[in-house]
Design brief:
13 helices, 3 strands, mainly alpha, disordered N terminus
């Protein structure tokens, strides 16, 4: 590790004139992380700026964010709570991927209290308390930093709904997704759902036959699967 820490990192100038602290491409960030660069504390400002770009542009770089958390663990004096918060926001937007949990494992416990509002939102999603999530999200100012967070969360919730129901009432959908009846048709189209021909208040969200579906156990999965969320969904007595 000592050899790595003393190895010079690829500086911004060596990456080319188009790469500055104001604008760095994902490829430039990857270059910074190569050959032990991920252990160099002087890349922290670059990674922090890269995170802000992700929040502002709606992009996502899981590797860079985890690398930044690792540097904060190695150099705790550099840690910024606002940055930790931003990384967790991107974690929420990545559900059902387990990125949020991986990030929490790398954040020192002393910061957990300051991050409680965002952590609580993640818990609501994991327990399928979707209506409660939307209500509490109204009071979390940090969400304003993350472009596209609403659509990202709705994509996740839509996936859970598709795995839970064959049909569901339109008014329930608008509540669970926190959208207006006017915007519901656009969501139905995006998900490939259809309104029932017999009853337009019902939406068909899954045409698969649950009874005939077989489940093959393959051991521990990298991410929590939709089957896992299905179990949580019922166990939590979802807000309906």
């Amino acid at each position: 590790l000592k050899g790595i820490l003393t190895r010079p990192r690829p500086t911004l100038s060596k990456l080319g004139p188009q790469h500055t602290l104001e604008q760095m491409s994902p490829a430039a960030i990857q270059q910074l992380l190569k050959n032990g660069g991920r252990y160099m504390p002087d890349i922290v400002p670059d990674l922090e700026k890269h995170l802000e770009d992700q929040l502002a542009q709606g992009t996502f770089d899981a590797e860079a964010n985890l690398a930044l958390l690792k540097l904060y663990l190695l150099h705790p004096e550099l840690t910024k709570t606002a940055v930790l918060e931003g990384i967790l926001l991107k974690g929420i937007m990545s559900y059902p991927d387990t990125h949020f949990s991986m990030c929490m494992f790398q954040i020192h416990e002393k910061y957990h209290a300051d991050l409680k509002p965002v952590v609580k939102l993640s818990q609501q999603l994991e327990m399928a308390k979707f209506k409660t999530f939307w209500k509490e999200a109204e009071g979390v100012e940090a969400l304003k930093r993350a472009k596209g967070w609403e659509d990202a969360v709705r994509d996740f919730i839509s996936g859970v709904i598709s795995n839970m129901y064959r049909t569901i009432r339109a008014d329930q959908l608008t509540e669970l997704l926190n959208i207006s009846a006017k915007d519901l048709d656009a969501r139905i189209k995006k998900q490939g759902w259809t309104r029932s021909k017999e009853d337009k208040t019902l939406v068909t969200v899954n045409t698969a036959c649950f009874e005939s579906a077989s489940i093959e156990v393959k051991g521990p999965a990298k991410n929590l699967t939709m089957d896992g969320y299905k179990s949580l969904f019922f166990a939590a007595s979802v807000d309906m």
